[in-house]
Automatic annotation (TrEMBL):
It is a multi-pass membrane protein. The keyword Thylakoid does not apply. Pfam families: T2SSF. Its main location: membrane. This is Type II secretion system F family protein.
Amino acid sequence: MTGGTAHIGIPDVVHAAALCAAMAAWLVVMGRSRPLRRARVLLTDGGERSSAVERWCGVRSRIEKRLRGRWEWLCLPVASVPAVLGQSVLPLIAGAAAVPLARRWLLRRRARKEQEARANGVGDLCGALVGELRAGREPGEALLVAVRGTDVMGDAGFRVSAAARFGGDVPRALVQAAGEPGLEGLAGVAACWRVSVGSGAGLATGLGRLESALRAERRQRDELRAQLAGAWSTVVVLAVLPVIALVLGAALGADPLRVLLHSTTGLVCLVTGGLLEVCGLFWASRIVRAGEAG
């Protein structure tokens, strides 16, 4: 060879290690079982699972077992990457401050998922109750079987089951259960129950119409979420753009972290840019949330 030999310096190794750590943290936080199952299907050959995917599943399961749902603590290792690269403690302080905020966001996200699961379960409860009624069971017995089969009401299900088993006020128990988040559809079940008892109208017919209405609402919610996927992608791109700018600056040799963390002008720019970034993300998320609520 006539050309000079390329030398890999220590800063390049540190940058590569930091990038790998950041990508690993991103995959742990954003990874889900569905993409992993899709990867297994794509990488399997003749029914044999890929060893790389299996190793990643084992690593992720061990991390989940160690964290035990406390994903917000990943803010600290992620913040340690710019702290090491920029040789400053400020990213670690920001990461520690982000832990309670991430905890709050994760709790709200979990509560929203549980609420949607309960709302979907009410539709399944109506379908199961209609099936039991058409099979010839009495309304109270059918309600007991449907509640045991769906298990979406939690503690409220025990009160409804007790009212149905011991001849209590079933509509009142259903209305009380409808006051919990995600179980609002039980108010319709209570109304159908009252009408069938008072006028002798068919309970299965009313519950069948209620089930159709709840399933139509679920389809509408899924369609709206699919339409807003592009807006959420824009929000994610807005959040990632500053990180991409820092990576590009480091690749060009500008050392942006040292400028931002070790100079007065850089600190002013960092604080101002961070505030503008947070305001922009909050504004965009609020617009998308308003569209989902509508």
